[in-house]
Amino acid sequence: MLTVAxxxxxxxxxxxxxxxxxxxxxxxxxxxxxxxxAKCELDFETPFQLLIATVLSAQTTDIRVNATTPGLFAAxxxxxxxxxxxxxxxxxxxxxxxxxxxxxxxxxxxxNDLVEDYDGEVPQTMEELVKLAGVGRKTANVVLGNAFDTPxxxxxxxxxxxxxxxxxxxxxDPVKAEEDIAALFPTKDLTLLSHxxxxxxxxxCHSRKPACGACPLMTLCPSFGIGELDPDKARAMFxxxxxxxx
Length: 246
Description:
- By secondary structure, the chain is an all-alpha fold.
- 54% of the residues lie in helices and 0% in strands.
- The chain has helices spanning 4-11, 17-34, 47-56, 62-75, 79-83, 87-94, 100-118, 126-129, 137-147, 157-165, 174-182, 190-203, 231-235.
- Helix 6 (87-94) packs across helix 7 (100-118).
- The mean pLDDT is 97.
């Protein structure tokens, strides 16, 4: 007898490209209803702050970064200040984010790049951003989408995991996954789509054991059944503002 997960996978096994696109867009519409306030969860006031915060967010949580950046930005409010910072002082300020020595080197070098090449301002193109120290496509898309309103897909661990569970892509390479996902949606929707999917990954569709039994996408997901199926137990797994006791 097939498991629930096997039945879900079989249900969408012969889906046409048009069917996948329609299902993907329906998923996005449902996520928009479930997470009407989905947004970048990193605190920032300027493009520079968002850029630095995103670099610091690697291998840690946004919550941890948000607890760290007020002290960092109080000491070094812009690229000009950070470019001449004492490396040891920066390391101490960001120690709690993990990998702090490498991150400190990157953000100080990044600040120097901004000062030398862009007069301290954050550039507004993918090509320029990815040349900066510690900046890849994921970071660049976060900055472009949230600081400059240039739509793009943020393929972090949540987006990559959920996109594969949804059957939007089979790729583990972030660039190839980004291309597959972007092909399913209007360009204007990509930044908010990223936020919604990331919200869903943090709150319901967890890495080790998703809360399948209480998921609003259960009828549209080829991976339904890989997690907890009991609705009450699944609902108890919800996190952040969706948690039962929140």
